[in-house]
Amino acid sequence: MDLPVERQLVVELKSVESLMPVHGAQLLTYLRLSGLHKGLLINFNEKVLRHGIRRMIV
Fold it and tell me: In what order do the strands lie in the sheet with 3-5?
């Protein structure tokens, strides 16, 4: 888990060519283990950053 934010949100940071299903599974695992319900998966290796952000809610 890269950044827990105010006990409400988990942020997982990546810098990869493209996000793979394993990255989403990793974030889901962090959410389940932490007991939190909201997460952001952010890939910094995108031309436009907003294209590299995925929101997950459990």
Answer: 3-5, 9-14, 38-43, 53-57
